[in-house]
Structure formats: C-alpha cells, structure tokens
C-alpha cells in the first residue's frame, strides 16, 4: 500500500508540475500575440515626419516619411533571405532636407551585386525607425577592408558614415536594383505554443507511466 501511495503522490505531483508549465506557456503565448499585434499595428500605421530628436525607446518602429538625398558611400551588412540566398543590406548615408545626416537601410541586394553602382540623389523614403539589437559577444567585428558588416549596429554604423545614430528602414523603393526589407515581426520568435504542446505531451506520458506502474504494483501484490 505504501508503494502505491508513493507512486500516486509522485505521479500527481509530476503531472501537476508539467501541466503548470504548459499552462504558463499558454499564458505567455497570449501575451506574446498581444505584443506582436501591437507591434504590427504600429509598424503599419500612417507615416509621419521624422521627429526632431528620435528616441530609441519611444520611437522604435515609428513609420516615417523623409525627404532628402541619398549620399555616396554605403555599408554592406551580410544577411540571408529564405528561398533567395545570401546577400547584403545596403546602409547608406541620407541627408534630410532639413540638414540632418541619418542612416538609410535601402534594402537587399544579392552577393554578386554588392559592388554594383547604385543610384544616389534626391529621394522620398517611407519606412520605419529602428534600432535593431543584432549584436552580441559572438558577433564578428566588421571587415572594414572588404566592407562587410555582420549585424546592424546603429551607433557603429553612424560613426563609420558620420551620421546621427538614427536608422530608417525603407519600405518604399530606394533604387531599381534594391529590394526593400521592411521592418516586420516575422523574425521575432514565438514558440510558446510548441513549448505548451511539449509540456502537455510530457504530462500525458507521465500520467500513463504512473498508471502503468500502479497497475504493475497492484498486480505484483496480488500475485
């Protein structure tokens, strides 16, 4: 009887913990979906003029329309696009009509087009302000000789191009051979449903195994 009671307590406790973890993941899923919905709403809102002093916290993802001039000189940020392959984001200095030098993420070009000549000059850009967090301790330092960057580091890119640390990621066309890569939420991980399914599955397996051991114990006692 003691063994049966121990197995029962152990089984119920394990199932409770696993179901609790699964329920927590479902709550996290609901929270994450709300956050992503808010971000999508902000990203797709009507564009406004570029703020005088953009704030990385308050103005992240803010849709803007900016008139100005694409200046010569650009940085190449290595990326890979699903079903397309490797290439570069083209980051160019942009002089606004009110005299500010900012960064413009013009979009994507394939690897072989990295050194091709691209149009500069007057341009009206619609896009979103962004301060991406793409660097960590494992990110390689930029290869300045080859003009290859491995992440969008806004302060470092601004220093390299002598601009303000303000990045507009274009969602409108910025050149005939450049494909815009606008800001979206597709790259933000949302794996809470998969985690919840995993925990619920483990709880079911735990319950079945507990039932099996209880049956074996009772059968052994009767034998």
UniProtKB/TrEMBL annotation:
Q: Which GO terms describe its cellular component?
A: plasma membrane
Indicate how the chain sits in the lipid bilayer: Multi-pass membrane protein
Q: What is its main location?
A: membrane
Which CDD domains does the annotation name? Answer: SURF1
Q: Which domain of life is it from?
A: Bacteria
Keywords (A to Z) from UniProt: Cell membrane, Membrane, Transmembrane, Transmembrane helix
- Compartments in which it is found: Cell membrane; Membrane
Q: Where are the transmembrane segments?
A: 196-215
Q: Which InterPro entries match?
A: Surf1/Shy1, Surf1/Surf4
The record's similarity note reads:
Belongs to the SURF1 family.
State the protein's name. SURF1-like protein
